[in-house]
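Table S2 (text version). Query chain:
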Amino acid sequence: MALFFLIPLCTGLITGYFFKKSTDEIAYLAGVFAAISLLLSLVLAPWPIQLMLLFIVLISTNKLLRKQNYKPTQELEK
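Corresponding structure-token output:
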């Protein structure tokens, strides 16, 4: 399995760290670069990793939707 997708992933994480720590206008440029490099790393990732990330996203959103739709009966009576 080729691991060259880790290069834009690591650069995206590093620039994302600088985005959080900096308050200058350059931080916005670093944030855009981080987002682009993270998307690029997702595109370049092998299909097993993409499939695993898809399952994680589906499971986590399903749990969040269940938590959001749950309303106790006491709140409905008010």
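Notes on Table S2: The helical segments are 6-21, 26-44, 47-69, 73-77. The chain has one domain: 6-77.
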